[in-house]
Amino acid sequence: GQQVMQIPQYQHVQEGEDFTTYCNSSTTLSNIQWYKQRPGGHPVFLIQLVKSGEVKKQKRLTFQFGEAKKNSSLHITATQTTDVGTYFCAGTASNTGKLIFGQGTTLQVKP
Amino acid sequence: NAGVTQTPKFRVLKTGQSMTLLCAQDMNHEYMYWYRQDPGMGLRLIHYSVGEGTTAKGEVPDGYNVSRLKKQNFLLGLESAAPSQTSVYFCASSYVGGQGYRPQHFGDGTRLSIL
Predict the structure, then answer these.
(1) Which site among A10, A101, A103, A106 would you substitute to test the B interface, given the most B Cβ atoms closer than 10 Å to its Cβ?
(2) In this structure, how many other beta carbons lie within 10 angstroms of the beta carbon of residue A97?
(3) C-alpha pair distances (Å), A87 with each of A42, A56, A62, A104
(4) What residues of A are in contact with residue B90 (Cβ under 8 Å)?
(5) Considering only A42-51, A52-61, A87-96, B83-92, which range has the smallest mean pLDDT?
(6) What percentage of chain B has pLDDT greater than the value 90?
(7) Contacts of B104 in chain A (CB under 8 A)
(8) What's the pLDDT score for residue B59?
């Protein structure tokens, strides 16, 4: 079936280090969304990418959508303890219209 | 503005019992969703609705039923609870339109344990 794979599953970094999570789809996506879930909380929408090769920034966060619209990445520069949480990507499959969530990457930041 | 409200927040059931989880949204969203979240499994879609009076199966619908009698409410029912249904349940809602799914707004979740 259609899948969205996210790697790594877990990442531990020292505060100030950079962090990247990758999202790869088995099928072309119409769009991709990114969500953040703090420990014990609920997913919160961060951003949506629609165009091939699109890059968007939110302060220290940089989001990219691949040229083939089958992969995406989230990069955090100089992590802070407030970045702790699980980051999910979610893509709409172009052929079925279904929304598929990745398994998430859990980020731990050591102060 | 409450957004998406889920009740109850916690519940413990015995195997075989039934219960209904309630989701209410005040954003006039057309789409509503029910997910379950288990460790290492991400978010899995149980059922969803694209409008009042309509429902559709998601990825893991077995053992659950849903109803959307009013636009603002989406109910998730467990007819005969099983320990495998122990999970955190999230409701979400979104507008419709544009390319692909619109951003979803999630409730705080219901933590359900089946003994």
Answers:
(1) A101
(2) 10
(3) 11, 16, 13, 5
(4) 42-43
(5) A87-96
(6) 84
(7) 33, 35, 43, 45, 90
(8) 87
Q: Residue B2: phi, psi to the nearest 5? A: -80, -30
At which residue do the structure tokens 């279904």 appear?
A: A98
Radius of gyration of chain A (CA): 13
At residue B1, does pLDDT exceed 70? no
CB atoms B100 and A43 under 8 Å: no
What is the amino acid identity at position B94? S
Question: pLDDT, tens digit, for every residue of B7-28?
Answer: 999 999 999 999 999 999 999 9
Give yes or no for a cis peptide into B83 (omega within 30° of 0): no
**For residue A93, what pLDDT band results from cuts at 50, 70 and 90?**
confident
What are the CB-based long-range contacts (under 8 Å, 24+) for B28-31? Answer: B28/B71, B28/B72, B29/B93, B29/B94, B29/B95, B29/B105, B30/B71, B30/B94, B30/B95, B30/B96, B31/B93, B31/B94, B31/B95, B31/B96, B31/B101, B31/B102
State whether residue A44 sits within 8 Å of chain B by CB.
Answer: yes
Secondary structure (3-state) at A81? helix
Q: Are strands A10-14 and A105-110 parallel, antiparallel or unpaired?
A: parallel
